[in-house]
Design brief:
The protein is mainly alpha-helical. It is built from 11 helices and no strands. Helix 8 runs parallel beside helix 9.
């Protein structure tokens, strides 16, 4: 903990991530106004005591939408990354453990999935099931699977060649026992760092999908949809685009800095090199 508190990237990133989490938790119990409430009489008003960050073109409170929009970003990030970790790590570990045709089959399947970016997957899912938050989560989650599969396979291959794994095999441990007892614990640090990176990418992807109308639908607030609605008011009220843009930038910056700090803390070799 002392070493972590002395690492500037980790500290600053952790503070930004905690701020994001605090905003989402606060919005569960309180927000200045209900985010979907429309007040046409006060539309496009500037920051004031009544509306801290002003209102949008329909008179909705910007601060309330930003707070509740943090919920959407966190939900999409957590679930989409969890899908990638659960399925991707399982595929990567099985491929590294079995080798041969099983490895080739699993990894070529992952490569095929990797050929479909989250946006293309979301368009296909939208054509079948319609746009929505679930569409964003599934599309981003599917895209995360081959990312974690490749990483887990590469890291696991390095562990399988270690002497302590050879000793475990000589002692009679089976493939799955070695995977759970030795492989997974020794690749956990790499996976944790990748989780923070994919979490940041998931927030960006959700904002992009909502901006294009494929993600979160009204009246649920979303930072990406706020940007979409602000683009027609760039000259009348440019701050409408600034607020969600800054929120997205800070969230992604915090997660990237946190991942950078975790990488240094979990890999002492990198810390010494720096």
């Amino acid at each position: 903990m002392k070493q972590a508190l002395r690492h500037p990237s980790f500290v600053f990133g952790a503070l930004l991530v905690l701020l994001l989490a605090a905003a989402a938790l606060l919005s569960l119990v309180w927000s200045p106004y209900p985010p979907a409430d429309i007040d046409i009489a006060n539309k496009l008003s500037g920051p004031s005591a009544a509306h801290w960050l002003g209102t949008d073109s329909l008179g909705r409170d910007i601060a309330s939408q930003l707070l509740v929009g943090a919920q959407t970003s966190i939900v999409v990030g957590v679930v989409a990354v969890a899908i990638g970790v659960l399925f991707g790590v399982a595929i990567g570990c099985v491929a590294a453990a079995k080798r041969g045709w099983i490895e080739e089959l699993l990894m070529r399947g992952s490569d095929f999935t990797f050929a479909f970016p989250a946006l293309l997957t979301a368009i296909m899912l939208t054509a079948i099931y319609g746009p929505g938050l679930l569409t964003s989560i599934v599309a981003i989650g599917i895209f995360n699977i081959p990312v974690f599969a490749r990483l887990a396979r590469a890291a696991a291959h390095g562990v399988w060649s270690r002497d302590y794994v050879l000793a475990a095999r000589a002692a009679g441990k089976g493939t799955w026992r070695i995977t759970t007892d030795h492989v997974l614990p020794n690749i956990a640090n790499v996976l944790i760092v990748q989780v923070t990176i994919q979490f940041a990418l998931a927030i960006l992807a959700e904002a992009a999908l909502s901006y294009l109308g494929l993600g979160t639908q009204p009246p649920q607030p979303s930072w990406g949809r706020m940007l979409n609605e602000a683009q027609t008011m760039m000259f009348q009220a440019p701050l409408l685009a600034v607020y969600p843009g800054v929120a997205i930038a800070l969230a992604v910056l915090g997660l990237n800095l946190l991942g950078d700090g975790l990488r240094d803390l979990l890999d002492p070799k990198l810390a010494r090199q720096r």
